[in-house]
Amino acid sequence: MDKVVDALGLVLEGEHLTVYIPATMKAFVFRVKSRANRGFEKFHYGPLPLPANLPLASYAGGVIPVPAAGVMPMTAYTPTGMGLTFPFSGAYDEKDMWWLPEDLRERLFHVISEVTPKWLRRDVEIPTGVPQGRFQRDKVTTGVDKLFGYARGKIETVHFPKLHYGYRFGNDSNLNVYTGISFTYGEYVVETPKDSELIFNILTRRIPSHWVTMPITVYDETIRRAFIEVYGVEGFTLYPINKRAEAVAEYDKLLKEVKV
Predict the structure, then answer these.
(1) Residue 260: exposed, middle, or buried by beta-carbon count in 10 A (0-12, 13-18, 19+)?
(2) Strands 210-213, 16-21: pairing kind
(3) DSSP result, 138-151
(4) Taking the CB of residue 240, how many other CB atoms lie within 10 A of it?
(5) Does residue 17 contact residue 212 with C-beta atoms inside 8 Å?
(6) What is the mean pLDDT of the chain?
(7) pLDDT, tens digit, for every residue of 105-120?
(8) pLDDT per residue over 21-63, tens digit each?
(9) Where are the domains of the chain?
(10) How many CB atoms lie within 10 A of CB 205?
């Protein structure tokens, strides 16, 4: 485990978090000023938000209804466009507890989620309805409904403000299973370092930072717009070490536009 995170896998106060976007080959660099939920990072949410009789897609073809609330039926998966969000009373969006408005741009959720049973297939739509799994550039779409391109059990991600993420699940066994999901999360108060040299050294891995690569291979317009409205920029381009001067010059310009 790298030294900028604690035993939970969350970034320590004063350290840096780098969030890489494969679709743009850019990254956001944040310094974690504070963790608002320090000491209370574990949250057992309960069963997946699967209401009884919700129609799911079947690996065998056709549709399979959810037999009871929170139960994932055998050989079933949540199809594209039915990524699950997590309702929570009193949240900014009561249908999606991880959603934040743009005026909370100094807040960021770093979320490590783990589902039970741990062998359930998982992937993430960003935004909800846009599958992100790709193979051979855009030749093949992957995900929970395909042969590969999914995780099992645990997923680590960063929830940006103004974006709804849809979590998809698949049960490729021949058993109906009662589900559960738990979150280890940090509600960070963040800022962008205002030193271009520091950003360059972080992005060339000369200075330690915790890296999270987002499952964003399709740069949907909703994502681009959210980044601009929330942060003022779409991230910092990754340069090789021998392009320091070019990188620093670009970063100096971008830092004039950064909103947080």
Answers:
(1) middle
(2) parallel
(3) TTEE-STTSSSS-E
(4) 9
(5) yes
(6) 96
(7) 999 999 999 999 999 9
(8) 999 999 999 999 999 999 999 999 999 999 999 999 999 999 9
(9) 16-255
(10) 11
